[in-house]
């Protein structure tokens, strides 16, 4: 670890992010939304423009929507609707043997789509720039990092010192890009034909790099995120390692505009040939198709633990393998957008943070094979889990105890991912069974079942965080953990008890599901999740029930009286001059008939008054028919009895913290008091 | 009319557009999409940033979607779902007397929304810039226009000569804007708080105006569009006039963030007070509400035909009128975004074009009161009707005969609009009836009925163009025209006969309705209209029926053989080096089961081959269940029998030209041959 020089300029920031890939940009987006002073640096000279990761889970799209840009991904991406399985028939020729939906119907308002990483980075960059002064600093490399452990618990301190070096343009241009243009070396290292119009500014900016070239500076930070990829410099500085294994299987990847008579080329396909290996087909945007192709001919290059020399693999070689697997169908191309080759392996970091001051996210703490389309999603979701917690602590809203939940929650996900990928890759790389007696081969049934089960995991909606200070559910039975490693050191315990049965399908620890509700004030239908923008705000959702029932109305007014009190948690934890809903927002969804009420029939704290803007018209909703978009039947879908109602607490990342009865104000107060900081008026 | 000077620089363009409001920008968007050499000038120094027209019809959103930006309007706008009627009760106090949906359920995939004109202009500008070099030239005023009538039928000639003067910044800044900031004079004439981030560049560009100030230039154009508003300079140069009347009724408009206990302020409301006049409430984006307020106190200013001195009206005066009408509910505000006052009048131009070379669109040919929210929509739709026709003629695809349909089609719409507005305004400005015996008053029933009927008109989906060379239906019975004036001189006659009964709900002359269909190649659901992008292309839609029926399959192959022939209309009218679908695109929707077929089961002409891109995967669709978005039941909804099928021809603007049997290739050929130009190979 390095030290600072007295003569250098020292900059102070709340958060420094190393790496501007999807994980780093997700973190920066949170910081931008929450107004946290942040810098983000990346050693590359420009963003990437093609290739690399491409699958977007339903859950990732839900998250994008909470930041306001899911529609951009939805419009530009290719939507994957169906998976087709192709297997050898009794004569050995491949035939379609089954179809399943790619996304399980009903689990999300989005379905899995494919769009290359460059566009996704563009959306993040635009989202960051539209609300904050944060800009990615490219061609900037950290050269030393130093954590003063005596200051880790001091909320005012800047315990981390990082030295940054500004690279020259030559240093900042990665060689990876230079092999991507039509399989030949591209002279300028960039792939102009693939640039969307709004990327042009980034190319121009690149010219500015050299002004600061070879200068250094010192940054003091409260928190650092290492989102710097599989070869993470931050991880290495911390002395942490990745644990896991690498296999013999080598796969090639081609992004091409295919010319083929294979009829399902625009479907996601899993093709198992009798003896030439497997292909996964991922149809993409702009007529492209990505093919993951098993390179049986190169299976034995290198040792299990060694890296394969990728120079031996060419697009021509990969194409030949593909042609063998897909025969008798023909396959060729005139347009090649990108290609690569990789060896399957799965590894997870032993630590996700140093003292909850320096964190790791994404490939820096877990790597695996790309075929499952999970890597970018899980990486972004690491940072999505972390960002609001760091912002809340930096802003003095929450105490540092919530930061422990990052490793607790994400380490388990990383292990789940590795396990999923291990199983999936084995099934995919294995030879198909010849018949039921062929025990070494993979049976079609086994494969299809794994795929169907995998789809739930792959959607990202199955994530279920364990009990903690911010997840008020009983600690998990160790027997149910399926051997997942969760360090007891990072466990925290909830201060209150939930009553899960009051909202049976709003699972504590999982993201809240979504159906449509109708705004009381203007009859507009909203997907419930659309109300839960990622802006750092906690939500207390009052499911008031059928307010035609006097008891429901009475409890609603009685809870509201507590909420409106000057010693309520709303008041105690909201800074004196901040807006009434900036820390905890109260939303109401009732099950009465919308047209029987106006917002003035509800207690004032549920539709607060602002002297410039008047009454707040957008806090109260009804579970009713809409004119044009059907009826979400929220109470039924969420498993809430309209005769009872309940209160649900949602984290800023839409995960469910607590479910309890309407008349239990005390638990709500105790829940927030267990980690929030009282604000002095 | 002026003359050119030999010394000045002469620029040649295909199209010159005068006026960069919504009508002018719609025209420019078409030209950009179709690659037509175009200039667009506006005398104002910047685009507008707030106020003015704001309602967007369903049909306008469908059109925006065909250009790729409906989602921007949909996201940013306020959605209007419900209309509430408020009327005096027996004691004279206003009470809610009824509710209806604002958009009739089922008529469109969009519903009426509200967003101010400045944002809509932004979307057009972005859409134009993303595909073409066309840029709005601001602070530019035409000073003379000259049409050489000897050249009007010469397709190579530039018969129009226009002289343009570049204004100084002072001249280019309209005084209208200077009264809009909180009702006081804004020092810089602009309302910065209301600017969206992406408008900043326009402000900066304003500084460039002075460089060309006070210079003049001469432009030679093939076609000119006067989209220069109610005081149209182009119209005056042509010597055309607006015919109609102005009434005594004066209305004030306030765009405010209301502070009120009126419970329906976020609904569209029609409030009739007993004796203080009426208010229409239009809830808007950014917490704004627009109030149209009857200024009964100033009803008698000026004579019927004279213009009222608006200086006598202030926001305070308008607010006071509003408070009287809404009593006992309170109304005040702290934020005023914009205000104006106007006198109701309706006028329509006597000509829509000079020699089908110089056209008028929008307010330049029809003006009326703004309350119905129609003006901007009908204006944009004028240009939407005209743009593809002009582009097609300029590009040598169609002959000039199609240009006559502009006046034929849009003059009728303008008269319909005036009639609608006249009735609507009278109902709205009149005193409510005290009881059934009160014949002078407006009865609630009459009003509500007019509103419901008006909603169909107001959606824009009821537009029904008459028979012409491009609308193959029987000429309309004069008795059914309700006295609408349509000059016989601009009528043209279809060359072929449709068989409307083959697709009973795909009405010839109306825009095609939309439900979801599933793409054969990738199972993705699309709204049928989403396939019909506004790019200048005609569509022949083969509703092939249930292709499990041998006769359906036989007819599909037999039609395809004709289409694929070297003398087919596809070949004759497509320029030799143009893409196969650039003039006429063939789409197929079958009623068989998607999973029983692949695209290779369909004739090649229905999924053409390109040597770079391979087969076209996006031309064949099925009327089937989707995994996540239901079933559109297209055949049922469109009134097509799957045992019969049919062929539908759609204009580039999504209006239905022709419906006929699958086995009648000859009519298709005759239809296109009646106005298209054979291309020489």
The count of strands of chain A amounts to: 28
Quaternary organisation of the protein chains? homodimer
Q: Tell me the greatest interface.
A: A-B, 47 and 47 residues
Report the mean per-residue pLDDT of chain A as an integer. Answer: 88
* Poorly predicted segments of chain A: 1-6, 176-194, 297-308, 479-488
- What Rg of chain A, in angstroms, do the CA atoms define? 26 Å
Quick one: biggest sheet of chain A? Answer: 8 strands, mixed
Structural class of chain A: alpha+beta
Could you say which overall geometry of chain A the principal axes of the C-alpha atoms support? Answer: globular
Distance between the termini of chain A: 42 Å
**In percent, how much strand structure appears in the residues of chain A?**
15-25%
Helix share, percent of chain A: 10-25%
**Number of helical segments of chain A?**
15
């Amino acid at each position: 670890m390095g030290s600072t020089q007295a003569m250098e300029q020292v900059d102070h920031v709340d958060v420094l992010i190393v790496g501007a890939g999807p994980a780093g940009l997700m973190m920066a987006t949170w910081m931008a939304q929450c107004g946290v002073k942040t810098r983000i640096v990346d050693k590359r000279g420009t963003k990437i423009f093609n290739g690399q990761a491409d699958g977007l889970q339903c859950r990732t799209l839900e998250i994008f929507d909470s930041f306001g840009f899911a529609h951009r991904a939805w419009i530009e991406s290719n939507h994957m609707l169906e998976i087709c399985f192709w297997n050898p028939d009794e004569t050995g020729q491949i035939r379609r043997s089954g179809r399943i939906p790619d996304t399980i119907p009903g689990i999300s308002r989005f379905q899995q789509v494919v769009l290359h990483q460059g566009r996704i980075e563009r959306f993040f960059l635009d989202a960051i720039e539209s609300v904050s002064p944060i800009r990615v600093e490219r061609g900037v490399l950290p050269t030393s990092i130093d954590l003063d452990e005596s200051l880790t618990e001091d909320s005012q301190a800047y315990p981390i010192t990082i030295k940054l070096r500004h690279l020259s343009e030559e240093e900042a241009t990665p060689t990876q890009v230079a092999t991507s243009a039509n399989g030949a070396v591209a002279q300028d290292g960039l792939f102009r034909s693939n640039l969307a119009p709004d990327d042009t500014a980034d190319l121009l900016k690149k010219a500015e790099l050299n002004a600061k070239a070879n200068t250094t500076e010192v940054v003091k930070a409260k928190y650092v995120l290492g989102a710097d990829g599989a070869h993470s410099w931050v991880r290495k500085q911390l002395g942490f390692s990745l644990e896991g294994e690498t296999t013999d299987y080598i796969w090639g990847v081609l992004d091409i505009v295919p010319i083929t008579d294979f009829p399902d080329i625009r479907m996601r396909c899993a093709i198992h040939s009798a003896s030439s290996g497997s292909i996964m087909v991922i149809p993409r945007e702009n007529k492209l198709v990505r093919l993951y192709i098993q390179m049986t001919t190169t299976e034995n290059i290198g040792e299990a633990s060694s890296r394969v020399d990728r120079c031996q693999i060419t697009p021509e070689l990969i194409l030949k393998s593909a042609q063998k697997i897909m025969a008798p169908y023909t396959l060729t191309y005139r347009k090649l957008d990108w290609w690569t080759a990789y060896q399957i392996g799965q590894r997870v970091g032993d630590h996700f943070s140093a003292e909850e001051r320096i964190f790791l996210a994404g490939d820096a703490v877990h790597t695996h094979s790309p075929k499952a389309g999970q890597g970018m999603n899980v990486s972004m979701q690491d940072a999505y889990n972390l960002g609001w917690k760091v912002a809340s602590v930096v802003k003095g809203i929450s105490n540092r105890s919530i930061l422990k939940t990052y490793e607790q929650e994400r380490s388990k996900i990383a292990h789940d991912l590795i396990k999923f990928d291990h199983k999936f890759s084995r099934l995919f790389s294995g030879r198909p069974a010849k018949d039921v007696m062929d025990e070494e081969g993979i049976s079609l049934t086994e494969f299809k079942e794994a795929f169907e089960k995998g789809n739930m995991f792959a959607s990202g909606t199955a994530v279920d965080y364990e009990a903690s200070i911010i997840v008020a559910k009983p600690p998990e039975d160790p027997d149910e953990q399926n051997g997942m490693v969760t360090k007891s050191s990072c466990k925290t315990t909830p201060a209150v008890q939930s009553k899960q049965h009051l909202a049976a399908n709003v699972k504590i620890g999982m993201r809240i599901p979504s159906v449509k509700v109708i705004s009381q004030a203007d009859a507009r239908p909203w997907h419930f999740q659309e109300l839960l923008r990622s802006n750092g705000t906690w939500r207390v959702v009052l499911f008031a029930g059928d307010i035609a029932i006097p008891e429901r109305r009475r409890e609603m007014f009685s809870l509201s009286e507590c909420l409106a009190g000057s010693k309520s948690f709303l008041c105690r934890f909201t800074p004196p001059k901040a807006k009434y809903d900036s820390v905890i927002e109260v939303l109401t969804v009732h099950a009465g008939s919308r047209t029987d009420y106006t917002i003035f029939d509800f207690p004032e704290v549920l539709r607060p008054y602002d002297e410039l803007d008047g009454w707040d018209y957008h806090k109260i909703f009804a579970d009713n028919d809409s004119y044009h978009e059907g009826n979400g039947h929220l109470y039924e879908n969420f498993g809430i009895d309209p005769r009872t109602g309940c209160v649900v607490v949602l984290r800023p990342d839409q995960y469910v913290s607590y479910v309890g009865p309407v008349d239990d104000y005390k638990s709500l107060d105790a829940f927030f008091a267990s980690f929030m900081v009282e604000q002095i008026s």
